[in-house]
């Protein structure tokens, strides 16, 4: 048997509770991972609440399709199925299950050829799931959606969240000059991530004509609080507005803005192929191991506090990633 954090209807954080179920066995080409850490992020909160509207397209129209949330995991392989060659029992690994979820549990079964890679020595399981939660979204947005490179001027809105904090660091690493936007409680944290300037949005509107650092080659709204229409005032000719939050407006603007000088871009990074995800996981893990990238963690909580983890995410004011530890690393399964 094993413990899982499960929910059977949409609602407030309290709809998620700890239950027991049979421990899954890996089939051919699969590995079972003892989950030492998993992230609780915005996608999990949306899946739990069934809101906004597009969440139910992924999680189930009337009720949850899968009882266990969580796509980002890190832990140790404790069983392998027939034919497995990439991993062995005892290997430290991390990765993402994608839309299948299931990581908010003491064990999860994944395909060995899925989005799972070795976890380097020196990178904690908590840092690993924070990489999945934030950097695995930020990197393709900046690199592929924004084409950020040396000399790019980048505005990151929501710079203290999991995606935003990763975006600041990765944009700097790509050679950009970064203007970061956050609330007053996180100005010092964000300044330490390498931003050229930090704007407290309670004192100054960063998306206005003549804003510090403007015009920007890229405006990356990591929290979905602005719009392409407003951002055009600070975008350079040929600039790109990136947002992580889908809406009917941004879908239409992504199509129609192609004919203009500035573009709106929405990406669904979690739906990328495993072949695209694995190299990014490996690259980001190597950066973390070398100290060149530092995932930001808001809080680490046990599985029994899963509702509290969801409440933290619901506030919209967390710094970095909320991590849940189904099986603490020092504890045997």
UniProtKB/TrEMBL annotation:
What residue ranges carry the coiled-coil annotation?
Answer: none
Q: Which Gene3D superfamilies does this one have?
A: Medium-chain alcohol dehydrogenases, catalytic domain (3.90.180.10), NAD(P)-binding Rossmann-like Domain (3.40.50.720)
Where would I find the Enoyl reductase (ER) domain in this sequence? Answer: 11-324
Output one GO MF annotation: oxidoreductase activity
Record's InterPro entries?
ADH-like_N, ER, GroES-like_sf, NAD(P)-bd_dom_sf, YIM1/Zinc_Alcohol_DH_Fams
Please identify the protein, giving its name as recorded.
Zinc-binding dehydrogenase
């Amino acid at each position: 048997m094993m413990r899982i954090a499960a929910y059977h209807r949409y609602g407030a954080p309290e709809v998620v509770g700890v239950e027991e179920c049979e421990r899954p066995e890996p089939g051919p080409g699969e590995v079972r991972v003892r989950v030492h850490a998993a992230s609780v992020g915005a996608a999990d909160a949306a899946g739990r609440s069934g809101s906004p509207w597009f969440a139910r397209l992924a999680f189930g129209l009337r009720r949850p399709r899968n009882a266990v949330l969580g796509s980002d995991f890190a832990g140790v392989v404790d069983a392998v199925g027939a034919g497995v060659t990439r991993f062995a029992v005892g290997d430290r690994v991390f990765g993402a299950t994608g839309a299948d979820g299931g990581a908010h549990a003491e064990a999860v079964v994944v395909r060995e050829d899925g989005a799972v890679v070795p976890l380097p020595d020196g990178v904690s399981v908590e840092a690993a799931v924070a990489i999945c939660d934030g950097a695995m979204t930020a990197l393709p947005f900046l690199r592929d959606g924004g084409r950020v490179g040396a000399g790019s001027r980048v505005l990151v809105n929501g710079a203290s969240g999991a995606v935003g904090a990763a975006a600041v660091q990765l944009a700097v690493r790509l050679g950009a000059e970064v203007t970061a936007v956050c609330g007053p409680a996180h100005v010092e944290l964000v300044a330490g991530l390498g931003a050229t300037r930090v704007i407290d949005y309670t004192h100054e509107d960063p998306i206005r004509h003549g804003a510090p650092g403007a015009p920007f080659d890229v405006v990356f709204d990591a929290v979905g609080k602005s719009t392409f229409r407003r951002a055009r005032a600070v975008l350079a000719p040929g600039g790109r507005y990136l947002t992580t939050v889908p809406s009917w407006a941004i879908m239409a603007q992504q199509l129609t803005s192609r004919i203009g000088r500035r573009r709106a871009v929405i990406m669904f990074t979690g739906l990328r192929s495993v072949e695209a995800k694995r190299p990014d996981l490996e690259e980001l893990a190597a950066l973390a191991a070398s100290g060149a990238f530092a995932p930001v963690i808001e809080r680490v909580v046990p599985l029994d506090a899963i509702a509290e983890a969801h409440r933290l995410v619901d506030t919209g004011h967390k710094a970095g990633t909320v991590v849940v530890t189904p099986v603490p690393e020092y504890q045997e399964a």
